[in-house]
Amino acid sequence: MTPPCQRCGYAHSLYGSTSAIGRFSSLAPLYRADYDGSPLRATRAQAHADMCDHYATKENPS
Ligand SMILES: [Zn+2]
Q1: Distance of CA 30 to CAs 5, 11, 17, 25, 51, Å?
Q2: Coil, strand or helix at 48
Q3: What integer pLDDT is reported at residue 16 of this predicted model?
Q4: How many domains does the chain have?
Q5: CA 15 to ligand 1 center in whole angstroms
Q6: 57: CB partners within 8 A, 6+ apart
Q7: pLDDT tens for residues 5-62?
Q8: Count of H-run helices and E-run strands, the chain
Q9: Reported pTM
Q10: Is 62 exposed, middle or buried (0-12, 13-18, 19+ CB in 10 A)?
Q11: Cβ neighbours for 56, distance < 8 A, ≥ 6 positions apart
């Protein structure tokens, strides 16, 4: 169980809401939050923060 985020109110986990890009290549992996148009980030923590922002700014949660 992931407790609701104190910032956005949604229960989103670090590994459940982000995807690693290029994990199996020789390049350093990039990460992005699991929503359309999310930016690529160098760290999973940054992608996770994007997911939080996405939830926090969503006008019509469904
Ligand atoms: Zn959050």
Answers
A1: 24, 23, 14, 11, 15
A2: helix
A3: 87
A4: 1
A5: 13
A6: none
A7: 999 999 998 888 899 988 677 778 899 999 999 999 999 999 999 999 999 987 654 5
A8: 1, 2
A9: 0.77
A10: exposed
A11: 7, 8, 9
The pLDDT, as a whole number, for residue 23 is: 67
Q: How many whole angstroms from 21 Cα to the centroid of ligand 1?
A: 22
CA of 26 to the centre of ligand 1 (A): 31
Question: What separation in Å is there between the alpha carbon of 37 and the centre of ligand 1?
Answer: 18
∠ Cα 57 35 43 (to 5°): 95
How far is the centre of ligand 1, averaged over its atoms, from the C-alpha of 29 (Å)? 23
Partner residues linked to 19 by β-bridges: 32
| Domain housing 53 | 1-62
